[in-house]
Amino acid sequence: MLAVFEKTVANSPEALQSPHSSESAYALKDGSLATHFSSVNPNSVTLNFGSSGFVAYSLDNTDPRVPRLFTVVDDIFCLFQGHIENLPFLKQQYGLNKITNEAIIVIEAYRTLRDRGPYPVDKVVRDFHGKFAFILFDGAKQTVFSAADADGSVPFFWGNDAEGHLVLSDNTEMMKKGCAKSFGPFPKGCFFTSSGGLRSFEHPKNELKPVPRVDSSGDVCGATFKVDAETKRESTKMPRVDSSQNWAGHI
């Protein structure tokens, strides 16, 4: 799976930018990364969101232990990889039918946060038990919501291209093509939102601090993020969509 979002839609941490990158990689410019993904995965599907970015999905080279899913509901797009072990419980919790899959669960959880809050975002993501990584884009609200499980069980990476656009993928070769050296593993046990940035759902009261990631050449290439046990932050909730302020400003 692959997603690229314009920097005004999802502003990723500056720490992901490598100071030692000798080449400029562009993920949105001229549609080159989307074209490359399609050439490598001839049976793939790419959805273009205009200047906001795109998502691309393929079943090629799928690991059966962490299958990929792609679902669209009411202009909300979700790429999901892995599986949720407590799916029956979540179906009941969200009032969904038996044919519901993990991607639909994520979309419904997001819509609950957006429309029926306030709920702590970390609590909602923490309720997902299993091996997973997902990328969600709300086309109407121009909002990105992404997360990875507490063990980092699914290969999942994020980074910046030369223009500061956010790139997310399960494939390191796609990350190198779109970001050069400016990428790293998506932090396990964490979620990212357009306006709230990166948060830990395991340790929601703590800040996250970047740690430079060094490659085999000794160059800094992006960063990993660790929970800062010394720094606390306030818990956040999402107001309902009809409240005086948009939910996205509170995550």
Automatic annotation (TrEMBL):
<dbReference type="InterPro" id="IPR024286">
    <property type="entry name" value="DUF3700"/>
</dbReference>
<feature type="region of interest" description="Disordered">
    <location>
        <begin position="232"/>
        <end position="251"/>
    </location>
</feature>
<dbReference type="InterPro" id="IPR044828">
    <property type="entry name" value="TSJT1-like"/>
</dbReference>
<feature type="compositionally biased region" description="Polar residues">
    <location>
        <begin position="242"/>
        <end position="251"/>
    </location>
</feature>
<dbReference type="InterPro" id="IPR029055">
    <property type="entry name" value="Ntn_hydrolases_N"/>
</dbReference>
<dbReference type="Pfam" id="PF12481">
    <property type="entry name" value="DUF3700"/>
</dbReference>
<protein>
    <submittedName>
        <fullName>Stem-specific protein TSJT1</fullName>
    </submittedName>
</protein>
<feature type="domain" description="DUF3700">
    <location>
        <begin position="2"/>
        <end position="227"/>
    </location>
</feature>
